[in-house]
Amino acid sequence: MRRQLASVALLAVCFGAGPASADPFSDLAAFPTFYADATMKTMKPMAGFRKAWFALSKHDRVRMTKACNDPAMRKPHAQFCANVLVLGGAN
Fold first, then answer.
1. N or C terminus: fewer CB in 10 A for the chain?
2. Which residues are CB-neighbours of 38 under 8 A, at least 6 positions away?
3. Domain residue extents for the chain
């Protein structure tokens, strides 16, 4: 039984259920809703950003807020994180 549990845990970590999944920016599926263009270069105005923000699940908003509070994570997503932090990480 223990061997089976260890195997399941190992598979979970290998397939992304471990620490690597803690990066909410690794899944960019939600990001296009925050941008005005397909190239994701122009952020929507705050009203559109706010609407997209509250369309996310509370869990995703919490994860993104935590990531935006980390300077290393925030740097490559500066404009996005600035908007998140302006919203105060509203959940």
1. N
2. 32
3. 23-86
Tokens coding 51: 């609407």
| Mean pLDDT computed over 10-26 | 50
Structure confidence at residue 18 (pLDDT): 42
Predicted structure pTM score? 0.67
pLDDT of amino acid 38: 84
Euclidean distance between CA atoms 23 and 20, whole angstroms? 6
Rounded CA gap, 6 and 44, in Å?
46
Paired tokens of 89:
């990480």
Calculate the alpha carbon distances from 41 to 34, 38, 76, 79, 80 in Å. Answer: 10, 8, 13, 10, 11
From CA 27, how far away is CA 33, in angstroms rounded?
A: 13
Report d(CA 86, CA 34) in Å as an integer: 14
